[in-house]
């Protein structure tokens, strides 16, 4: 109940819990879900990133949930991390070992490939590069194996889009050339009109002069 009440809280960073009130495994899991909901990438990103005081950790060292409670509190407490949600997505969602363990702790059915439905294929190459930097070649290889079809479709789509873009640029160049030609033609017409108007004005002026004399 305490963890659920803090789900949307953006101000409470400290909880003082007396040592006599031991946090059970179920309670610890509730706080993990509060600070890093592994249900989806969006859920992880929008988890509570405020709660950070270590007084919360009244867990035995052998408790498998303790390391994640501690790690989430550490991440929430990082003063220079302007985007804690992004950091949690990288650490927990893009690492298959941690993601699987968090799924098990939070009682969620785990499927490695399910993460790819949440990633836009167009940004998949960037995600793969990020995984390689943050989690190494083994994790990159595993992700490549599971995303190869999406990756190929992305490459093909990029080729098509680049071709369309190049075609549109050519069309724009043609239109700009046509516009320049029309502009030059209009300028010539204006010059001719001004010349004719000047001649008419001179004739009219000459006629008025002769009539007056």
Radius of gyration: 34 Å
Number of helices: 7
What is the molecular shape? Answer: elongated
Beta strands, count = 0
Largest sheet: none
User: How far apart, in Å, are the first and last alpha carbons?
Assistant: 110 Å
What structural category do the secondary elements indicate?
A: mainly alpha
Give the rounded overall mean pLDDT: 85
Helix content: 55-70%
Order of helices and strands: HHHHHHH
Strand percentage: under 5%
Low-confidence stretches: none
Question: What does this entry look like structurally?
Answer:
By secondary structure, the chain is mainly α. It is 66% helix and 0% strand. The chain has helices at 2-5, 25-35, 41-45, 66-76, 84-93, 96-105, 124-212.
Provide key terms for this protein.
66% helix; 7 helices; mainly alpha; 213 residues
Question: What's this, in brief?
Answer:
The chain is an all-alpha fold and 213 residues long. It is built from 7 helices and no strands. The longest helix has 89 residues.
């Amino acid at each position: 109940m305490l963890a659920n009440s803090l789900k949307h809280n953006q101000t409470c960073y400290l909880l003082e819990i007396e040592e006599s009130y031991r946090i059970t495994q179920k309670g610890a899991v509730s706080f993990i879900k509060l600070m890093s909901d592994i249900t989806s990438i969006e859920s992880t990103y929008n988890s509570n990133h405020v709660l950070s005081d270590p007084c919360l950790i009244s867990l035995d060292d052998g408790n498998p949930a303790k390391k994640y409670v501690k790690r989430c509190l550490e991440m929430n407490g990082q003063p220079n991390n302007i985007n804690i949600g992004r950091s949690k997505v990288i650490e927990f969602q893009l690492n298959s070992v941690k993601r699987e363990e968090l799924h098990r702790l939070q009682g969620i059915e785990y499927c490695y490939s399910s993460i790819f439905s949440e990633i836009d294929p167009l940004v998949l190459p960037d995600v793969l590069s990020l995984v390689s930097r943050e989690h190494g070649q083994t994790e990159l290889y595993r992700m490549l194996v599971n995303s190869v079809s999406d990756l190929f479709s992305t490459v093909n789509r990029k080729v098509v889009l680049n071709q369309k873009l190049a075609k549109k640029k050519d069309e724009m160049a043609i239109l700009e050339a046509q516009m320049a030609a029309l502009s030059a033609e209009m300028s010539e017409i204006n010059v001719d009109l001004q010349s004719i108007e000047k001649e008419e004005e001179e004739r009219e002026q000459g006629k008025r002069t002769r009539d007056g004399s």
